[in-house]
Write a structure and sequence with these properties.
The structure is a single chain. An eight-stranded mixed β-sheet has the order 3-2-1-4-5-6-7-8, with helices on both faces. It starts with a helix and ends in a 7-residue tail after the last helix. The chain is of the alpha/beta class. β1, α3 and β2 form a beta-alpha-beta unit. The protein has a single domain, classed as Rossmann fold. Helices cover about 35% and strands about 10% of the residues.
């Protein structure tokens, strides 16, 4: 058994906080490879899809809003959109069946789509929307696409997490805020911790089938849809905008361009430097440090954020427990065979 916590240390990738997606992809040929990028029609997802396609991969973008996706992806070679809503299990089933019917191997599954800062909302099953979208939908999608991942004879599943996993561990007793007061950042934090734990357990179960998994923090990329529910005043207070309401860029503080934000996703997906390892959390285009303290945070007061991953997000028992809970919640056994 690999000890993920001992491996959770930077490897000296040669890249850094200011590296862009185009830096990471240089010299990589993805001709003949197939990738799926959820949310690949906006923000860092779109940049990821463009970067992989430019290197020769065929990229499929499942999209809740196919009209918006068609406009965003217009004119891009090797990229196509297909309908899917991460909060709708039937739509995930339909998308997966459609893909499996092509008999294509799946080399890269980039679970990138996500929501943040939302008020309390529930899906049709009564599940809290951030946990449903950011984790459960991707868990179901990965489970259904498993045969295609195995067929690739060397696949990677990338779960885009966040520094925001510090806002909350997975609260197994009440993941859907039925007994506790809802706080949007706690809901977000729980879902992002789930992304990391899912990568850990998926990698553990999948490595003997040639499927490795990584999670990552892309940075605080302001020019994405995630900020749409925040006011300019709030963004100034966080240190993301200056007093004139203009975006502040400071990669070392995580304040990145969209291409800088996509670089860690792309690096996790294609870098030969990660051959033979997995289950790791990455940031700034390298493996992240393991944070020493086990305590999370309760609020976001500025963007001057400490680096690293919280120990609770790499807890083996929690990863196994989350897998079982996720199977129960989606009513599907994720058989790794």
């Amino acid at each position: 058994m690999e000890n993920h916590k001992s491996q959770q240390t930077p490897i000296g990738s040669g890249f850094g906080a200011a590296s862009a997606a185009e830096d990471v992809i240089k010299g990589i040929d993805l001709n003949g490879k197939t990738a799926i990028v959820t949310g690949g029609y906006a923000g860092i997802g779109l940049e990821t899809a463009k970067t992989l396609a430019a290197a020769g991969a065929k990229v499929i973008v499942p999209a809740r809003n196919t009209q918006k996706a068609a406009i965003a992806l217009a004119g891009l070679k090797n990229v196509e959109a297909a309908e899917m809503d991460l909060m709708d299990p039937d739509s995930i089933n339909a998308f997966a069946q459609q893909f499996l019917a092509t008999n294509s191997p799946l080399h890269l599954l980039i679970n990138n789509a996500g929501i943040m800062w939302v008020p309390l909302q529930r899906d049709d099953r009564g599940y809290e929307s951030q946990f449903s979208t950011n984790h459960l939908g991707h868990f179901q999608l990965t489970a259904l696409l498993w045969p295609a991942l195995v067929k690739a004879n060397g696949a990677r599943v990338i779960n885009v997490s966040s520094w925001g996993h510090r806002f909350s561990p997975v609260v197994f007793d009440d993941p859907h805020f039925l007994q506790r007061d809802y706080e949007t950042l706690k809901g977000y934090g729980q879902s992002k911790t789930a992304n990391i734990l899912f990568s850990l357990e998926l990698d553990n179960r999948g490595k003997s089938y040639g499927v490795r998994s990584f999670s990552l923090h892309p940075g605080a990329i302001v020019e994405t849809d995630l900020k749409r529910l925040l006011s300019t005043e709030q963004l100034i207070k966080l240190g993301v905008y200056d007093v004139e309401g203009k975006t502040i860029l400071d990669p070392e503080k995580g304040l990145k361009t969209i291409s800088q934000g996509a670089s860690t996703t792309v690096w996790c997906a294609i870098s030969p430097q990660l051959e033979g390892v997995g289950g790791l959390y990455c940031e700034d285009t390298d493996v992240a440090i393991l944070h020493e303290s086990g305590d999370g945070v309760t609020e976001l007061t500025s963007m001057d954020l400490p680096k690293g991953v919280m120990p609770y997000a790499l807890n083996k028992e929690s990863a196994e427990k989350l897998w079982r809970l996720s199977e129960e919640l989606i009513g599907l056994e994720f058989k790794v065979v």
